[in-house]
């Protein structure tokens, strides 16, 4: 038998192709349910659609999928003797050079230090990557589940040869749709909804992270505050640089929390761990955040003329008891209305920002995808976040009383609680 290939969907569509159109084309071409097609095209990582194909058939699949709008590639593979375990190996581990040993064989024969299958780091401890925070076994299992889901339930007939799939064209599609792999514990999922009291639990768990290594947490926070002050002194660009790179720093804190959850220590070096991967996407989050507030500023300017006139009238009311001036009291109402508008526009932006650094650093999502998923997670947990916000406001006030020294404890707890909320909302 000649060399075999696997067809891999890269998680991207060709420029100008709408996702809805690609899903419709996928359903029509391969006779699968819309839900199944949507799951396949929602993959954010490399996803094996077909494997063990001869070159001719693999090329047919590639052309059919590219005609729909998917960006796919072919990779050569070798069938392991007596095993079909290739789906247990993430795409990232596939050999890049012809003639290279299969990943399974390489894992047994090579004596080199193991590396993380996601980021390539060799900082592994207790089955976890200290650089990107993943649990390697869960990451490989999730990759395998995605590959097997696509391979077993896509019901893709051989391209150009309809009717060759088992059970006839489309006959097994509905059956296989009903055999979708159930979510695994510890796997990333769509945002979950929690009761209001869960907001308090996020804070409690955040305190657990802090007390594991309080000195490192406080020193790291002090270093970041000092760096922010120094950079902020740079005219014109200082504050902008801080805002753009804050998601990178926050991603480092999230990776530090992940390391603690996997049995390691939070270290000062985690302050810069976010620079190890996806820096561009993290900075893009900061840029979109700045753009969002710039848009809010424009809206304020557009409305500001009338509000300022009303505000000045309201000030005159407070300075004068003349009955004729009481009509201008509406100016105070205008100021209140302006504040409510700004608050109403800022909250959705904060919701989109809140979990984005963690989703990018640990899941490899793009900035836009991470911000959309962050917004969805916050929307599904309005009540827990309400409790969380009230408690955090009280803690911040209390922490500020002793000359602000309490903030050395409060700020790490807030930061760590962002991670605990992220894990609680996006993981089974």
UniProtKB/TrEMBL annotation:
Region Disordered, residue ranges: 84-112, 150-179
Transmembrane segments: 215-234, 240-259, 271-289, 295-313, 325-345, 351-370, 382-399
Keywords, alphabetical: Membrane, Transmembrane, Transmembrane helix
Protein name according to UniProt: DUF2189 domain-containing protein
InterPro entries (alphabetical): BPSS1780-like
Organism: Sedimenticola thiotaurini
């Amino acid at each position: 038998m000649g060399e075999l290939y696997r067809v891999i969907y890269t998680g991207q569509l060709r420029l100008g192709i709408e996702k809805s159109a690609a899903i419709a084309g996928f359903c029509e071409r391969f006779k699968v349910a819309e839900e199944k097609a949507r799951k396949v095209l929602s993959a954010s990582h490399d996803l094996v659609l077909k494997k063990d194909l001869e070159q001719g058939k693999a090329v047919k699949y590639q052309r059919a999928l590219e005609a729909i709008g998917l960006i796919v590639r072919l990779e050569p593979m070798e069938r392991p003797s007596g095993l079909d375990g290739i789906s247990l190996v993430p795409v990232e581990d596939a050999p890049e050079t012809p003639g290279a040993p299969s990943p399974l064989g390489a894992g047994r024969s090579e004596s080199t230090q193991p590396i993380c299958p996601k980021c390539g780091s060799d900082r592994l401890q207790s089955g976890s990557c200290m650089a990107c925070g993943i649990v390697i076994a869960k990451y490989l299992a999730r990759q395998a589940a995605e590959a097997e889901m696509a391979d077993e339930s896509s019901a893709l007939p051989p391209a150009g040869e309809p009717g060759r799939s088992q059970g006839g064209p489309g006959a097994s599609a509905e059956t296989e749709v009903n055999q979708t792999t159930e979510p695994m514990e510890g796997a990333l999922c769509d945002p979950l909804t929690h009761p209001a009291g869960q907001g308090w639990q996020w804070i409690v768990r955040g305190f657990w992270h802090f007390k594991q290594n309080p000195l490192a947490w406080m020193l790291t926070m002090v270093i970041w505050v000092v760096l922010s002050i120094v950079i902020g002194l740079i005219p014109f660009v200082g504050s902008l640089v801080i805002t753009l790179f804050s998601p990178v720093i926050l991603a480092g804190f999230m990776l530090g929390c992940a390391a603690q959850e996997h049995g390691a220590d939070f270290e000062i070096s985690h302050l810069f761990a976010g620079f190890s991967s996806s820096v561009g996407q993290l900075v893009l989050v900061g840029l979109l955040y700045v753009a969002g507030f710039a848009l809010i500023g424009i809206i304020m300017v557009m409305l500001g003329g009338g509000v300022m006139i009303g505000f000045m009238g309201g000030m005159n009311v407070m300075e004068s008891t003349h009955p004729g001036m009481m009509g201008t009291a509406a100016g105070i109402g205008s100021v209140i209305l302006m504040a409510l508008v700004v608050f109403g526009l800022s909250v959705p932006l904060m919701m989109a920002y809140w979990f984005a650094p963690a989703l990018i650093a640990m899941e490899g999502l793009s900035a836009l995808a991470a911000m959309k998923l962050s917004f969805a997670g916050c929307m599904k947990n309005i009540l827990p976040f309400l409790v969380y916000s009230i408690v955090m406001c009280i803690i911040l006030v209390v922490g500020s009383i002793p000359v602000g020294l309490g903030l050395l404890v409060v700020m790490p707890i807030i930061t760590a609680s962002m991670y605990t909320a992220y894990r609680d909302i996006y993981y089974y």
